[in-house]
Amino acid sequence: MVKSNNFRDGYNMKNIAILCSGGDVSGMNPAIKQFVDYTLDKGMQPYFVYDGYEGLIDDKITPANYSDVAGIMTRGGTKIGSARSIRFKEASYRAQAKANLDKHEIEMLVVLGGDGSFRGLHKFYEEHKIKFCGIPSTIDNDINGTDYCLGVDTALNIIKTSVDAIRDTASSFSRAFVIETMGRDCGYLALVTHLTSGSELCLIPEHPYSLKDYEDEFKKQMKNGRRYFLAIVSEGIKEDSNEIAKWFEERIGIESRVSVLGHIQRGGNPTVKDRLLAYQFVTKAVDALLDGKEESVICYEKSGFNFKSIEEVTSKIKELDNELLSYLR
Ligand code: F6P
Question: Is 27 in contact with 277 (CB distance < 8 Å)?
Answer without folding.
Answer: yes
